[in-house]
Amino acid sequence: MNETLSCIGCGAPIQTEDSKALGYTPKAALEKGLETGQLYCQRCFRLRHYNDITDVQMSDDDFLKLLHEVGDSNALVVNVIDIFDVNGSLIPGLARFVSGNDILLVGNKKDILPKSVKDSKIKNWLLERAHEEGLRPLDVVLTSAQNHQAIKDLIATIERLRKGRDVYIVGVTNVGKSTLINAIIREITGDKDTITTSRFPGTTLDKIEIPLDDGSFLFDTPGIIHRHQMAHYLSAKDLKYVSPKKEIKPKTYQLNPEQTLFLGGLARFDFVEGQKQGFTVYMDNNLNIHRTKLAGADAFYDKHVGQLLQPPSAKTLENFPELVRHEFTIKDKMDVVYSGLGWVRVNASQDKPVVLAAWAPKGVAVVLRKAII
């Protein structure tokens, strides 16, 4: 294939191998495009014909170039993060790259958290996490792009904060950024079928421009890949266990010291030392959780992973990384977070400390944070 072929919509080099990467075009569409002289990548084709923006993945270098471009402009940066996977959806060094531009933090997928959790508490908690990363957002908006929750509030907040400037929407893959942008477009136009092709000129790096009434633009940017997210180690079939679509129903397990919880075959939670207590698991409702004794846990995992302990399934087990142990001594109410999978809440205190070991696939981050609930 001629390597100089480019999408006439966004300028991305055309390729037919990786459907998640820039410039992907099915082979049949490539042949048709060459015949007609209208060669679009699949993303631009869907935008032209269905007014639908789909996320694509970029290399880290390409994403850094894009962030530098954001930093060189005078714009409002809308950083979309996944409330269910905050640590996995923060962009490392974003504060440095945006170079003093104003930031609006958008916590997406708020419908996943139990309804008993107040929005004000989540917003304050997200602000604390953002400050830890050096970000100083002007405001926080909670949304559910999937359920079209708070989209009007988000549009009004963007309009209030941008002050006539362009808007860049940034986020890692799997945070629901493109679903959110589609919801914004449909809210603004009132009908998704009213958007004409000419309103969406693309530019290089597959950044898509959405014109605003005053001549400024809202830029959709591709998502950066976070290698330490659980999703990158699972088959498409197993992804449903790490991407909840419904409100999570927390499950509390009363554990004695030297007991273990297997979180499917994806991860493991060992209660090593401390007083008997309840540990609450916040993960997809369909994930099978199995309790056993710590003493025989290694052998139990080796025997049952891919069968009793799923996912991963037996078919995908060969490519699944080994589990790596992370030990913590906890003296406060904390969440043990498995990036992209969920978290376990621990009720420890200074006079009742707890020693735990959290096991996750090699490469997947496990972090402690102040309890969100």
From TrEMBL:
One Pfam match: MMR_HSR1
An example molecular function term from Gene Ontology annotations: GTP binding
Chain ranges of the CP-type G domain: 64-227
Entry-linked InterPro entries: G_CP_dom, GTP-bd, GTP-bd_ribosome_bgen_YqeH, Mito_lipid_metab_GTPase, NOA1/YqeH-like_C, P-loop_NTPase
CDD domains from the UniProt entry: YqeH (cd01855)
Protein name per its UniProtKB record: Putative GTPase
Organism: Streptococcus hyointestinalis
